[in-house]
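Submission checklist for the structure archive. All mandatory fields must be present; incomplete records are returned to the submitter.

[x] Identifier: Sugar-binding domain-containing protein
[x] Organism: Flavobacterium plantiphilum
[x] Residue count: 993
[x] Sequence attached
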Amino acid sequence: MSRKLLYCKISLLLLFTSSIFAQEVDEGVKYNFNYEWKLNVGDVDAKNQDYNDKDWKRVNLPYAWNQEEAFKVDITSLSTGIAWYRKTFQLPAEAKNQKVFIEFEGVRQMGEVYVNGNFVGRHENGAMAFGFDITSFLNPYPKENVIAVKTDNDWKYREKSSNSPYQWNDKNFNANYGGIPKNVFLHIKSKVYQTLPLFSGLGTTGTYVYASNFDIENKKATINISSQVKNENASSVKAQLKVNVADMDGKIVATFTGETITIAPNAVQDLKASKALTGLNFWSWGYGYLYNVKSELIVDNKVVDNVTIRTGFRKTKFEKGKIWLNDRVIMMHGYAQRTSNEWPSLGMSVPAWMSDYSNSLMIKSNGNLVRWMHITPWKQDVESCDRVGLIQAMPAGDSEKDVTGRRWKQRTELMRDAIIYNRNNPSILFYESGNESISEEHMAEMKAIRDTYDPFGGRAIGSREMLDSQVAEYGGEMLYINKSARLPFWATEYSRDEGLRKYWDEFTPPFHKEGTGGTNHTNVNGSKVADASPYNHNQDAHAIESVTRWYDYWEARPGTGNRVSSGGVNIIFSDSNTHFRGAENYRRSGEVDPIRIPKDGFFAHQVIWDGWVDTENPAAHIIGHWNYDTNITKNITVVSTADNVELFVNNKSLGKGARTKNFLFTFKNVKFEAGNIKAVGYDQKGKKVCEDVIYTAGKPAAVKLSPITRPGGTLADGSDIAIVEVEVVDDKGRRCPTALNMIDFDVQGQGTFIGGIAQGPDNYIGSKNLPVECGVNRIMIRTSNKEGEIKIKATSADLKTGELVIKTIAVENSKLTKRLPDANLPSYLEKGPTPLTPSFKKTRTPIAIVGVKTTSNQADAAKSYDDNELTEWSNDKEGNPRIEYELERKATINQVVLKLSGWRSKRYPIRIFSDDKEIYNGTTPTSLGYVTLDCKAVKGEKIRIELAGITKDDGDMNIVEITGKVDQAGLKAGDKANGQLKIVEVEFYEAVN
């Protein structure tokens, strides 16, 4: 496994394939409007064209005016208020007698737009893209125009028309990067044109591209285009679409036309075209294959407008508790990531390649799904996931509960706008209607929006929880595992633990003892986390906990029966500037830190998630490092998908490790010896299938710098960012994993120092002096708009100085440029097309229940196997805790699977009988939901389960909400139920013949 290479330096040139679009997408009418804005923070009246803004700060968008505070302060302390953005520009000469539209990918929280002093419109939801027709407000070429945008990111902002707040403008969840933190575009079109997908502000739906009639094996599908066309001429026109489909190499693979339609003056009409294509490459996990679908609008045999949609084609299915992608079952494993996806000192406003870099790391960790939390992601991240092959769950807007009235209407409007704006992005497979369960009526309303605006996109719509919904198409709880024979259920957040990257273990400076730090945290709502110790890990414990949590989902994976789990997402991927439980003022739950340096959990996930369902490439990862004092003896944990793991210290075998939770192999009391430690994995036949090796580094000798930059070169556009990794290495160039040296940085030439992050005062945000942690750190540098060199020097006491030169490339930086922010960014194709082979093998045979009898509460007995986790059977308090099931046939039951109320904290002493022969006698363990009990193989037709004693409360699984509330896991408040057998679901299994 190549984890050392990835851990030392992650270069985009390695992450991405060389396959790129042969030429830049050129719609001919869409301009990058990001350059040369001016910014003023404060409540002034700057809408008029002649307002004097000469002393304002010069910025390029995207740029949140408070972004320099990212990770410096807690989310609740981010600056808020009114800020103005202004830009002076000329229209191109060819815009005469044309339509002009402005598109904002998003403004936080409110944006009022003025053109040449005239009020154009207001947008207030703070999450979604919007646009305005500004044609009538503009001066023609060569006169100048001024656009001014007043923004207000007040946490308590209320909608002007209703005085209603926005539910998702919430201090708990949604980092408040104010102003214009996303891209802006200008569109120039003829008076007969294909509309923009900007329902908010324009009321239009744009162009819809989708595939149908899939034949995955033979690489066939029908490509369909439906484009909304508006005629603003004074007379009717006859119009049709001509469509060109180009592959990743720029080759035209199909050209076809649609029917000619007459469009009346000021009318809107959907024009359509379709064609069956062969030889298609289907978009897939880790295979971001995209096409350019160009629709030309032809009026009187002349092309008057064109729109290019970059999209991909894939087939989906959601049923029987499973998810299919291109006819192959895929189990969800990934991350619940904050939509802000922020970086230190930059917030969310990063170049498009950095979105690719971050999102591709999720793929590199073998994650296949990102669930953006609370609000819809910005278009840059949506399109990035297309390129890297990362499945997305797209929310609209929510905080933590269902609402009514205007606040609910705001949510439906946001979902409508987000679907219209993002329905051509193949990476979106799920629409999330709520961060908590919503009513069936509300779910039906959301589903109707999906069916209206994206009826053919192959996307499931649902909500968190919704476990008994008859309307939702998927669901899943936050902290626990769910199973279903009907809907796909995947956990929306299954781990909340935290671990700072700086802390290796209890034996390495700064010696972080498990559970220490941050126990006096006060939440935004005023509640206190009295004891946050279960969350505060070092890297060893954090990685182990992540693997432990995943085991419950893996155990219930597709192939294990009719009722299965479709997986889940770990919260979060990168440390986030949101609520926290540690001593730091940011959340440290990530598998990478805020500047995307991997933690040990990254490599642990890389091992356990290698496959669509079953393991496809056995791997091993030794948790930790191998640089200790000579007197240290510690337990070594290896994460592996092998059947057995052997550990070697300097080629001396320490034997096989004790296996737990399938993936964890523990070696007790391993004494440190300088040299190397190696883990070798074997299959059941004893064949070597994987290994991992860690070497002891020597004493710190030098500072080493390595660049992480935009594929194709760093741009001299005043906006591009270069990341520089800094390592403390020994005389052989190996990273020193325990180094904590302070590094002094000096940047000269065509770049400006931005900085990085480390534990310390203000988290070292903006500081030119910061320490390495575990021997490594990173800084960022913003380019100037002048081509040249950026010279970086990094010095540290008693170490050889590190030096690096980054050359920047001249590009067009005009106020109106057709060079779009994501121009020529490559797709990630490393995982290849969807395999045509099955993704799992059947591991056991479920035996159906056809009847049930009990002497206590017979009326509810069937609820114990009704495939509904919100119902249960329990004996009456004075009744007999015994229940007997009749099977569909005589079967040799070797496993019984139970979900018992209070699963996280209760242990049930039970006995199980098959036709009156005891096959199990023991106490159930705590779990994230389900327990699997191995039984004696006795053939029978009736299975009886009895409570054999008093249930015991156990606090070994500490799961506490951010509010400090202990989750009861299916028990009602104060319900001890120590004399009751409470069965939520029961399943019986026979071994595969």
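[x] Structure attached
Curator remark: Residues 529 and 965 are 8 Å apart (CA to CA). Confidence is low (pLDDT under 50) at residues 1-27, 962-966.
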